Amino acid sequence: MGASLLPSPPFLAVFLFSLVTFSVNPEPALAITRHYKFDVMLQNVTRLCHTKSIVTVNGKFPGPRIVAREGDRLVIKVVNHVQNNISIHWHGIRQLRSGWADGPAYITQCPIQTGQSYVYNYTIVGQRGTLWWHAHISWLRSTLYGPIILLPKRGTPYPFAKPYKQVPIIFGNRL
Ligand SMILES: *[C@@H]1O[C@H](CO)[C@@H](O)[C@H](O)[C@H]1NC(C)=O
Ligand SMILES: *[C@@H]1O[C@H](CO)[C@@H](O)[C@H](O)[C@H]1NC(C)=O
Ligand SMILES: *[C@@H]1O[C@H](CO)[C@@H](O)[C@H](O)[C@H]1NC(C)=O
Ligand SMILES: [Cu+2]
């Protein structure tokens, strides 16, 4: 008697499928992995009529921006092409179970030596807004930095009117 009331296997399968589809994922807020490559290299940079060879990421000063959505994974390969030891700190990112991706040299990792690389791999959990990354060894942070822009999940509004445009403003020292 009881057995005859159980749904047949195909029905059960369809039911479970719709449960997963509609309850776990009510709207597509799919987290993705975003890959970046940071080539740490020398570059001649001119500011205020003054040219200097400085350590940069990808030849840019200030450095390239990282853009991610909350929930995304960032995989950032840093390759060191300069004579200095390097490490990069992702300032303000909460490293949950990924402490080895935090970046302070001699605290969570050995520095990346000349000709070597390191892959920083972490997810953005419960954070939105604009942060920054910078070198975390010696005084290299004076030229090695850039913005990290954390957008809300797709379908999640900003806690204010949606901005028409974003312009990161970074304050740094004169070269
Ligand atoms: C910077 O300029 C100097 C002098 O012109 C030049 O020798 C050097 O190769 C330049 N470095 C880069 C990375 O372009
Ligand atoms: C670079 O890092 C290595 C490994 O920690 C260390 O042995 C070496 O002294 C460092 N070089 C400089 C110039 O700090
Ligand atoms: C990043 O970390 C995740 C989770 O540990 C792992 O599955 C993935 O393979 C890693 N990716 C790289 C490129 O190291
Ligand atoms: Cu910092």
UniProtKB/TrEMBL annotation:
GO molecular function terms noted in the UniProt entry: copper ion binding; oxidoreductase activity
Task: Give the originating organism.
Answer: Salix koriyanagi
Q: Which residues constitute the signal peptide according to the record? A: 1-31
State the family it belongs to.
Answer: Belongs to the multicopper oxidase family.
Lineage at the top is: Eukaryota, Viridiplantae, Streptophyta, Embryophyta, Tracheophyta
TM segment ranges = none
Q: Could you tell me which InterPro entries the record lists for this protein?
A: Cu-oxidase-like_N, Cu-oxidase_fam, Cupredoxin, CuRO_1_LCC
PANTHER family in UniProt: LACCASE-17, MULTI-COPPER OXIDASE
Pfam families the UniProt entry points to = Cu-oxidase_3
Q: Where is the Plastocyanin-like domain?
A: 43-153
What is this protein called in UniProt? MULTI-COPPER OXIDASE
Alphabetically sorted, this entry's keywords are: Signal
